[in-house]
Specification:
By secondary structure, the protein is of the alpha+beta class. It contains three helices and eight strands. The strands form two sheets. It has a five-stranded antiparallel sheet with strand order 1-6-5-8-2. It has a three-stranded antiparallel sheet with strand order 3-4-7, with no helix packed on it. Strand 3 and strand 4 form a beta hairpin.
């Protein structure tokens, strides 16, 4: 029995639909087999890794990928459990993703509560066996840091230069006669020891007529003096002529 082209096309289409249906059933059956022994987690089976553009959109996660280096932790890769003991300060973590192969557990931060988050793990496989963790990372939203104010203190130093001018004082050693007996003090801008000037009062000469009469005449003494002066002059003149 020969098949017409139309009937042949219908059979091919039916076979294709059957194959697609079988694949969907197989995938659903495998998905149903992904289980977890951690009540805090939600298990999934699909290809998701840290570089996937939708890595933080599955299972209620939000934000962007937060790499393991941002956390303080023990365990993790190639071990069955992961213990998160410290969270990043600049990120609000929305959840964690822990995977083994193509199966992974999604942990939402709301269900985990406050850190530390201990014994996070991947879904169980092969009838209940706990696999080693192949990869893990967090998801979160960056926290805006408050602006920091910077106070700058400027110190200005002023230098003042003072010039002192010295005065030269000339002292005279010649005594000055004044009518006052008070000492004269010379002062200047420089500190100078006081100079005392001694004033000598002239002794008045009494007139001859004002002398008291004592009964002793002095006229003959004046004549004698004049005679001696004349004799002396004569002797000097005689001595000069002899030398000549």
């Amino acid at each position: 029995m020969r098949l017409t082209p139309l009937r042949r096309s219908g059979l091919l289409a039916s076979a294709a639909l059957a194959a697609v249906a079988s694949l969907v059933l197989a995938t659903s059956a495998f998905a149903d087999e992904v289980t977890t022994d951690d009540p805090r987690a939600q298990p999934f089976s699909q290809f998701i890794d840290v570089n996937h553009p939708e890595a933080c959109t599955v299972g209620g996660l939000s934000g962007n990928v937060v790499l393991p280096g941002k956390f303080v932790y023990t365990g993790g890769d190639n071990q069955q459990h992961l213990n998160i003991t410290g969270l990043p300060e600049d990120v609000e973590v929305t959840g964690m993703l822990v995977k083994a192969g193509d199966v992974f557990n999604v942990y939402l931060a709301d269900k985990l509560g406050e850190a530390p988050w201990n014994e996070l793990r991947a879904p169980v496989v092969d009838g209940g066996n706990l696999p080693e963790i192949g990869q893990w990372f967090g998801c979160g939203v960056a926290v805006e840091q408050p602006p920091t104010s910077t106070t700058t203190t400027t110190t200005t130093t002023t230098t003042t230069t003072t010039t002192t001018s010295e005065s030269t004082v000339t002292h005279s050693s010649t005594p000055t006669s004044t009518s006052s007996s008070e000492p004269t003090t010379s002062s200047s801008s420089a500190e100078v020891a006081p100079t005392t000037t001694t004033t000598v009062a002239p002794v008045p000469v009494a007139e001859v007529d004002d002398l008291a009469a004592t009964g002793f005449g002095s006229a003959w003494m004046l004549g004698l003096g004049a005679a001696l002066v004349a004799a002396g002059a004569a002797m000097v003149l005689v001595m000069r002529r002899r030398r000549v």
